[in-house]
Structures
1.
Amino acid sequence: MNHAALYHRHKQNWAFAYDRSTIYIRLRTMRDDVERVQVCYGDKYDWLKTEERGGMIKLVSDSLYDYWEAVVKPPNGRLSYRFHLQSGDEQLYYGERWCKANPSENSDGNFEYPYLHAADIFQPPEWVKDAVFYQIFPERFANGDRSNDPPDTEAWGGEPGFRNYFGGDLQGVLDHLDHLEQLGVNAIYFTPLFEADTNHKYDTKNYLQVDAHFGTNELLKELVAVCHSRGIRVLLDIVFNHSGSAFPPFVDVLEKGQESRYADWFLVRQWPLQASEGAAAYETFSFEPNLPKFNTANPEVCEYLLNVADYWIRIADVDGYRLDVANEVDHRFWRKLREVVKAAKPDAYLVGEIMHDSMAWLQGDQLDAVMNYPVRDSVIKFFARGVIDGKEFADSVGAQLAAYPLQAVEASFQVLGSHDTPRLLTLCGGNVNQSKLAVLFQFTYYGAPCIYYGDEIGMTGENDPDNRKCMIWDERGQNRELFQFYQTLIKLRQENPVLRTGRFRFLHAMDRDNRVAYERWDDGNRFIVMMNASTESVELKVAASSPHWQEIWTGTGVHAANGELEISLPGFGYAMFRSVS
């Protein structure tokens, strides 16, 4: 066995409390190097009498390692533990301070989870596991009130640009809630609604006022109330990393320089400064001079921004926030924000825009979840662009699955497209069947799926601004068959908890092979999904743990002969099986 590949540490994603009585424990070993792993655990104060052993399952693998997992109930809330590994005739015991063939008789040198405190349990909102989000870019969704249109508003459906307007607003959303209800979504994610000088509104001018071109604060309150009456949650996008250059405190700094009472609200490098100097004179988001970065180490800035987060929950009853550029804001601020938001609404959802390893933000004291861009990128590379094979796809998904505690994975925000990416159908070269494979994976994997407005009817678009086209409301311009596919998946996911919170494993994923299969299961249900991400027809056979199955899309009963399911899949074809008694 490769001793150097062994890795474990207590807390974070390696040993975490899932609830008041349960701890998940994980161990990393070299891939295909270890045949069997047990966790030996007990109470350190009475090790000889309390020691138990539990088998560990191979949770997932990546290109280098296997990740093993066990679920244990700590005696008396305390947990001392070590691992027993076997491969052929070799055995090994692995603890925090030793790695040897024979263990010590007592708990000296073991790993420890000192005490399972209820206050330390990471608990994202339960409702998020059941959520299906729909992302709305308000300016391009629907124009419901022409009286608030910006000057020079263009005819609906014209060519989108970086600076043009089509009059989309909150009334337009209210007018089309039937579309969302018919689709089956139960949560909306709005890109920013607050007063700003652009069509995207990420350059906030007034954090306490809905932009007049979208409506009013009262209209937002009405919209949220109507959504709640229909069982739809509402998530607002909010920017605490930076403001817009028209934000009054920044304007005051531009006018008064170092004499401004807001001089320390921003990260100024040199005085005097001009807005056009951008990052040369003051820190910004990227190098955009109209997006000055906040100094969140300033207590006044913190108080102002925290009050903003509290305000929209208390006056409009919103259900949480998508936090822009979350990885560029200090951790102390996020800890304060969590306390304020959870005090105002305990089940509010805090999801951060982070595109890399996010464990530092997902320890229960800051964010509830992040946008799962790593998995999204793997899905796009495999299903849409075809630049990786099944093994690399499974390895990358496995690595991400092992990277976070289970509850963070279950609450993750699963996107395939957004206002920041080309649309899914465009990435698939216009091939609807190919796009369906990516959507099928999205809705049968962990996390809350999010549909970018219009993807459900086959809208296309390259990068910004082309991905921000006006929503197509004429059904003659919509792909209704694709809409029905989304409907079916949403209904299937909502009716089967196993597709939301069941265990996950790949059954088939190989080098130079565009076929994949995976299983979701819990104590009473099993689903197997099989997909062909190539243009050619293929045969696919996988191990099946139950003898009788039903294919979801056709309703056909299938017998797993010799413990195997076998099917022929056309190019970009798929099948989905449910075990039946």
2.
Amino acid sequence: MADPSSYRPKPGQIPDSPGVYRFRDEHGRVIYVGKAKSLRQRLANYFQDLAGLHPRTRTMVTTAASVEWTVVSTEVEALQLEYSWIKEFDPRFNVKYRDDKSYPYLAVTLNEEFPRVQVMRGAKKKGVRYFGPYGHAWAIRETVDLMLRVFPVRTCSAGVFKRSAQIGRPCLLGYIGKCSAPCVGRISAEDHHELAEEFCDFMAGRTGAYIRRLERQMQDAAEEMEYERAARLRDDIGALRRAMEKSAVVLADATDADLIAVAEDELEAAVQIFHVRGGRVRGQRGWVTDKVEAVSTAGLVEHALQQLYGEERGDAVPKEVLVPALPEPVEPVQQWLAERRGSQVSLRIPQRGDKKDLMATVERNAQQALALHKTKRASDLTTRSRALEEIARALGLETVPLRIECFDISHLQGEDVVASMVVFEDGLARKSEYRRFQIKTFEGQDDVRSMHEVIGRRFKRYLQEKQRSGEWTEEPAGEAPVEDDGVPDAMAGRPTDDDGRPKRFAYPPQLVVVDGGAPQVAAARRALDELGIDDVAVCGLAKRLEEVWLPEEDDPVVLPRTSEGLYLLQRVRDEAHRFAISYQRSKRTKRLKSSPLDAVAGLGESRRQALLKHFGSLKRLRAATIEEICEVSGIGRKTAESVAAALAGAAPSAPAVNTATGEIIEDDGVPSAALSAERGQDR
């Protein structure tokens, strides 16, 4: 733990103006981002007596090793910069959001010539109208199915639309009256676009006038004795009313508003949002927040607003936002929302009437979400904490290993040797930081040498990044790790750690686990020692007896079979094994599906299959003369010469594959089940 006085800037160095500040740890990672109306006054609060700080704030300032700031003109600019930096750096001491789903929206692509109604997730696109979010995609499809009877807007994909236009025949929806079939010209592009806009108007809440118009048309048709048309209009009105019933009226004045409620305890908070459009609840979403920083309800509301509207298009911000507590100060947040929307936004606490009653409903949902989350997570969190403590105790570590990296070697009888690296943080897999390696310094099977190479390559990157950030004075030997495609990954050659970005290869673990026993552990420890790294613990987990091996120890550490620590190590090891096997299989499959014929220019798939079918195997094709090859239909003399030359220079052991059946054709011409048999021999 660092002493904050060691990096505390002098008061005169800090400007007395709005800005955003960043705390970094000893590795240069951004661990906290904050904004301030006065940087000098705000930063002074962090460098007071540690006993007077909130426990979370005290942990943050003692973890940090430096602080820096950026001056901006206004508090609104500070709010915007703070949000962008939190999204970019993912600081560990800022409020963490855990949204457990990607919420679907009902989208209408008004930016296309023939607009399409569909379900969309993710980032918003320009020129697309969105309605929602909905809790489930099926709820959108039910609503759309009812409304297509009245608004037969296109719902098909671009491929289906193009195909129907080519053959001059619409799809099934066009035949049953749930699509106006613009693909075959039943409706013009202008009329179809107008139909899509009417669909959007109805979804936006302008329903009363439209239904009244349909009712008048139904009555007129009945008076004119056009009973079939009147019946159709009656059914259309019924379908629209059923669609409207799916979102009950909650605010009589057709208000567009978002209601945000928070339920919290000392460690976590649940945020719930109701989206009300046209007086109806059109969607609901929520997430759970880790209170890793000392934050009030008002602060949680401000973070929720940033999370909710930071990446939304302006039309997603409603006229009114109702919250349980106002951010302090509220003016910059209101101005930011107004800029996002393009017009004034009312941010306030509901005091009476229907809006206060609806806010109570949202709060009950937030409380239930928090209770449900704590019920699900309590045992899991407790178990993970106990597992990490058991591992630290068994291995004699000074602190629990919050980051664990595990390495495994995979091959098939010495061929296609690869390695995997998986990462677990706080006992959970961090798949975004997994890595794969090809063994490049030697051929054949040698798990010990392979482990030494992989560990060395991984931690050379760490040293290179430390050198770029000025923390290392020697130039480490070797090159950056190469990924599975043979090209250095996006981290190579770029000082990304200097930028504090969260996704980096060089972030060091507290514990390295290798799949194997004493030899593999010794190889890993030797690789670290050669690089001068002595602050990373190493252990191995031998699969035979699930023994934990430590460097330079003659006897293994035996954890009880019921130990949560052993179970966590097994999960880490098995995940590394799975990841390595999947990579090794993909490489082997590519190799087995290759053939010397693939390199022959102008020889397509059909003629390759014709050659194999005619001769029965590559062995017989290789032995054939040019005249015999020319006897195959479609093979001229020039192509035959190219085939003969390619086979003469190819290794005779390379198998061919019948792409129609997926079977491997051996040199004797007999299809083989080798691929499936080999899968059972994977290491």
3.
Amino acid sequence: MARPIDILKRYFGYESFRPGQEEVIDTLLEGRDCLAIMPTGAGKSICFQVPALLLPGITLIVSPLISLMKDQVDSLVNQQIPATYINSQCSFDEAKQRFAAIRAGRIKLVYVSPERLQNEFFSSFMQTMPIAMLIIDEAHCVSQWGHDFRPSYCAVKEWLARLPRRPVVGAFTATATEKVKADMMNLLGLQNERVFIGGFDRPNLYFRVVSPADKTMFILAYLQRHKQDSGIIYAATRKEVERLYGELRRRGVRVGKYHAGMSDEARRKAQDDFTYDNVDVMVATNAFGMGIDKSNVRFVIHYQMPKNLESYYQEAGRAGRDGGPGECILLFSRQDIMIQKYLIEMSVQDPQQQDKEFHMLQRMVQYCEGRHCLRRYILTYFGEEPSWQRCEKCGNCDQETVEEDRTFEVRNICQCVDELKGRFGLTMVCDILKGSQNAKVKRYGFQNKSSFGLLQTYSGPEIRDMVKQAVEDGYLEQSEGKYPVLSLTASGRDVLAGNCQVVQARVVAPPEAEIDLPKRQVKKKASVIDEDALRPLFDALRARRYELAQREHIPPFVIFSDATLWEMAAQKPLSLEAMAQIKGVGDFKLNKYGNQFIHVIESYIQNQR
């Protein structure tokens, strides 16, 4: 009998599993239910596709989006894995042929939407078939506390109960709170399940928060430097998507747009254009969410701050799914906070849920405004405790800083907060310290406070940064909710009493025109490869991949990922034996495409002589 590692090498072209994959696969093969919470890009699909090829009978995958089904089935069929999907886009004849193929045992993986489980004919048909596994993809959709609630997922448990023989059940999602995790286990009817929570770190992603004076000009400058890369730009509203899309298109960018206000057909075409590399950049709202299986996304830019870290990390995680380098940039301004508060007020009516949303928004703001290691902040938010304090490979860790004695400033900040008795927030504290004569300060008589104007020699933004740093350093505490207020901590009272010195790191910021990301590098085992030197051969390999994809009517990344092409460019294999050692080149793809890519490499080498 074939082993999981044999299937992985033969069909998928990898010599070893990614962390966490093998344990999930072994659990499913043992006939035991499982819940796997693994970040975007961790290789969740492999976890059920490998056992599906080893177990007798069929594997049924419940997937929320038609586009996701199509991409995954296209990729599997391209690797000569017998897979199909049944959804509303299938014609009567197509559906008839697919049911016949399933009945004849020619199909191993069947993708359907959760709504399909409520179809009487489908249910009756599946009750006659040997179902080895039922896989629930994007399983967080079962919970109203998740961010993609789909009521049809609640039909899974009842559907399972009607089967003559219960299959193994696997539930997969990228992120989940404790509440969502409990809902998934209960509402999906998991039994004697094992729960796997994979490491959330994505070492190939570079995170940065930038506050440019003009966000659009920043994006235009960034795209000018990354003309050949595929990426996503997320905006908070449809209006902003339309404006930004129009601006980029006028500047000659190969750009598409996607939001819920577009027709189904327009959205389908937009996603296809992006998937098939007909456009380089997609400007979208978060409606462009689940179902993006495109592996060669090199950057994700958030034009505005998302409402919570769960959404941000899932969206940003669409960069670098092939294991290659990805850049995740969040363009932040204070106005973003007001936009997200407004959207929460308009979309969430339940007071308890609204308070929860405001709390998560506050954590998102802290991510944007803090000087902490961005990667560490994300990981601790999701319950991990990294062994390091600084990752040295995010925007904050890369910043040049100098240490300064800020005892005087922090003591004055603590004095102001103490005088306000925990009744006001950051804006009022800053106004008082600046010595502002605005109406609100005068209404409460705060111009008579002893702390009034104590930091008037500093600019408003400088005072705000110092107060936020005092919160981050633990001298102040900020409450939760829609209107957070500030209060002193025990450490803050020590500063106020003159019992300790405060040393803070000040960022030495480069001119805005110089703000850019480090030169992208491609990692190969222990070495690092210079992308600039490999770019000409990579482009030639990519052009051949695009030609083949056009001919076969499949997305280019289905043939080979960018990471695989970069490794080809670095290793320059000139035989099928050498090509077989490239990560991502399985037996079927080697026989189907190997010689064509070898010819590109041979031509390139000859032209270099």
4.
Amino acid sequence: MNAVDDLRRINIFFNSLAFNSLKAPWDKSCYHPRNLGAHTKRRRHIHLSSSPTPVLSELVDQTEHSLAQEDYNYDSGKFAVFPSVQFLRNFPRNELFGKVVMVRFDTLILLQGMKEHKPLPENAFSTIRYLYNSRAKVILAGSWNESANPKVHMEGSLSTKSVADFLSSMLELEVVPVKHISGFMHIDVDDIKKPSILLIENLFCFKGERANCSEFAKELTSGVDIIVNDAFSESHKVLASTVGAARFCNSCIAGFYFEEGLYKLKKIIKITERPYMAIIGGSKLADKAAALQSLVSTCDGLVFVGNMAFQIMHARGTPIPMKLVETGALEEAARIVNSAKSRNIPVVLPQDVWCITDHVSENIQIASVHSIPEGWQPVDIGPRSLEEMSYFLSESKRITWIGPLRFSSRMQDKDGTFKLAEALGTLSNCNVTFIRKMEFEESFWKSKSYSHDSFLESAAVVWEVLKGGKLPGLLALDRAYPFEVDWRVVYDDPMRPLVVDVGSGNGLFLFGMGRRRNDLNFLGLEMNAKLVNHCLDDVHQHGTHNVHFIATNATSTFRSIISSYPGDLFLVSIQCPNPDFNKPQFRWRMLQRSLVEAIADNLVHGGKVFLQSDIEDVAKRMKEEFLIYGKGQLEIMETEELGWLKENPLGVPSDWERHVLARGDPMYRLLLSKVENRD
């Protein structure tokens, strides 16, 4: 199809449509788009093929693993935890050029490299380099809290300049620290114009960061176009820089390091290999009880190698020194014991331990767990425990080790659990994953038994997910459509010109259009998944082959969805977006720059954009947004009285439009056409 045919089809389309009443395609009452109750959830008929995800070591160039949204079935029932989000890898690289991009980098990487001098992940800084090479204006933000007490003054610890120097050395690029004014970050316009990368001051010093203060988040993102969240280890926290800031930017997407962490987390949750064993280290059983119950319901056996082992012994009635008993843990430990019994899975506990006295590692001896001498502190499993645990785990096909390697970091010799970890690396056809803070010796990192993919540093994130909690930092990311639509299945002829209705609601408009024009395909993009399910059911029930619906946030996903359509996009409609007058800061969020640019870029030359609202201020705002951000490609077609179209040029009213006209109120309509760029 050439450009002349495109224009001819478009003109015929608009000339042929007449204003007629719209009859619903199903025998049900109409649902008011601004006052919708929850529909009964129905079976969704949708044809999708999951999009690929790159190999972690080459996140940009290769695609092998899938990160599509999944539900994971445990023995205890369905456990769905991961939403579908937008990744930097899928974001159009040309859209980064000249944009101000704030990267929330992972503090764990920073502290590991600067303070602990540990080897860093290969892709720790790949997000920053990628954005810089894409000619984006990069601003770095992080929170390096070295003390658990937020009241501790940070003077004398890691300064912003020292962090900037470290990042400069790692990136081999200039990183310039930026000062703050009146308690908020301040970025000078002149600073952004410079080719260097900017680093704002330590966010840990600001109460607004930890309190997720809306005002602080707004100030933090002033002038920022895109936020890239690469702080996976902090995704379980509610922070202004990761959660609150997402409300004030055009896009909030996941960086390469965040994507890698999410990929590993999904591998941990989704279990396919059996037998599957979990090794549990650390303490504070009461805080992790819900997560441990989840593991009990999933695993084929549990091995305890930390202080939690003594809480399980205590629940079983085994005498242990009272100084090892955690307050409030007995009841939860008893539940775990009973759950394991009900599933008939073994729970392996240490039989002997290495102990030290007076916190002096030179004074060390082996003791039975039943007779630890007074004044001695267990720091690692003993040789008998090592032998029994190694034998028990020898037939495993999948092992997850979560928590510290040892009872105590005071034990420095390579013995006990360290030897157990080394032994697991020799198992044939066994997938072993370590989830913990990185405290491995250099020789362990150089071991040929394990690769970087065997380690996930964000233990707190994993514990949160295992206990059924949400990850606010993940939920704040833009919801991208993580699938490739098989257009050949969705439509009889995917080469027909496409009409897209953004915010399609109950679908009445598109069903009416679809019945009139069999030579066109129609697509509805709607955030309300229940409405989409309802529409897809009716598409299936009535055998409609030129109308389809997708549950998505079009602001984030319009470009990725429509760019894969093999035919031409010649019409986009946005009808009656509902502003929230009770929350002025959200009033105009539905139509943002990223959506306007995506529409303008994907429209065929001569294609149209139809805008209408019953609120004149909303219509004016939409008009301004398209003229400002349309890149000079969109111009207003002929209007009528007071600059608005009197009649609907499409001839098919939406449900809300019919309601407005029935009560005698006006509609404010506008039609734009894509022309040659005159900028």
